[in-house]
Specification:
The protein is an alpha/beta fold. It folds into 2 domains: about 170 residues, Rossmann fold; about 190 residues, Dehydroquinate synthase-like - alpha domain (Dehydroquinate synthase-like, alpha domain, Up-down Bundle). About 45% of the residues lie in helices and about 15% in strands. This is 3-dehydroquinate synthase.
Length: about 375
């Protein structure tokens, strides 16, 4: 049975099943898809899985075209969105047509934004191929692109019609990208699901996909997707509880912006952001040094960075925080942990506490 993101008429299923790529056409029919389909992907992912999805759709009568975009966060901009629009126009996509995002979070964000804005909104399906996209980016309807002043400043909430997750595609995921996705998994354990955190802590090896038993991987995917679905179902547009999902992202996004998305993957930046947020929470007395140590150890076990490169300008990071989307009336809002499985939001973090957390991120 699929996990359901419950949003009234915008509700949609999350299918988690091996070999589900081969059933793309069948699943698209199940959600009412018909007619023209544009697959948006990048060259590496399409080489691995494009033919499977293409064939699954063609076999069931869909008219399929492709749009292959360059890979990388630095291409997540309006110029690339224009390329998708050109394909939409060339292939005369209609309102009943479907854009399928076959790829990681960058592809999903851009394809989703194009779907949200072409003809004021056409059908959209997520087929995430990275762990990070499976557990986070593909679920919840956040779409958009980056601006020079910050990450994801241009975008829209636009829910997909379905999310199709095939765990088998992780076999070809580069180790660094797998680890990046594990940062978001750890996030869910810290903010919401202590059973997930305990499951992660119990693993003898977490740093590579091949070390995970099949049943443990499926539990990790289920816990993570169910957590995201539960939170989004309660708060679609981040007016309240959904803000918890930004744990680690406030400082993480600032690090990405300052380093121009070239030093760290998104998950690596989030891992650093979680460590900094944990340190802030310790300074404010929100949670214990022991829990911070457990978080840091779990991040280290995945072989994610726990220390910021010393040549990165801390003042630039603090300046970038002011461009965060969560800034309200000049106050930066942080999601901070209170205990494993519980977090809360605050805009009452003194500048010296933030500074000390960044210093510790370099000095540890």
């Amino acid at each position: 049975m699929p996990i359901i993101v419950s949003l009234d008429e915008r509700s949609y299923p999350i299918y988690i099943s091996p070999q589900s790529l081969h059933r793309t056409g069948e699943l698209l029919i199940d959600i009412g898809g018909k007619g023209k389909v544009l697959i948006v992907s990048n060259p590496v992912i399409f080489r691995h899985y494009g033919e499977i999805v293409f064939t699954a759709l063609i076999t069931l009568g869909f008219e399929v075209q492709t749009c292959i975009l360059p890979a990388g966060e630095r291409y997540k901009n309006l110029k690339t969105i224009e390329r998708i629009y050109q394909h939409c126009a060339q292939y005369r996509l209609e309102r009943r047509s479907t854009i399928i995002a076959l790829g990681g979070g960058v592809i999903g964000d851009m394809a989703g934004f194009a779907a949200a804005t072409w003809l004021r909104g056409i059908n959209f399906v997520q087929i995430p191929t990275t762990l990070l996209a499976m557990v986070d980016a593909a679920i919840g309807g956040k779409t958009g692109v980056n601006h020079a002043q910050g990450k994801n400043l241009i975008g829209a909430f636009y829910q997909p019609k379905a999310v199709v997750i095939d765990p088998n595609v992780l076999q070809t995921l580069p180790v660094r990208e797998y680890r990046s996705g594990m940062a978001e998994v750890i996030k869910y354990g810290v903010i919401w699901e202590p059973e997930l955190f305990n499951l992660l802590e119990s693993q003898p090896q977490l740093s590579q996909y091949r070390y995970l038993a099949t049943q443990d991987l499926e539990k990790i995917l289920y816990f993570s997707c169910q957590t995201k679905a539960t939170i989004v179902s309660q708060d679609e547009r981040e007016g309240g509880i959904r803000a918890l999902l930004n744990y680690g992202h406030t400082i993480g996004h600032a690090i990405e912006t300052v380093t121009q998305y070239r030093y760290y993957t998104h998950g690596e930046a989030v891992a650093l952001g979680m460590i900094a947020a944990g340190d802030i929470a310790v300074q404010l007395g929100w949670w214990s040094k022991d829990e911070q140590s457990r978080q840091k150890q779990l991040i280290a076990n995945v072989k994610l960075p726990i220390q910021l490169k010393p040549d990165i300008d801390l003042e630039a990071i603090k300046l970038a925080l002011n461009w965060d989307k969560k800034v309200v009336q000049g106050a930066v809002r942080f999601i901070l942990p209170k205990k494993i499985g519980q977090a809360a939001m605050t805009d009452q973090v003194p500048p010296d506490v933030i500074h000390q957390a960044l210093i510790c991120l370099i000095a540890q």
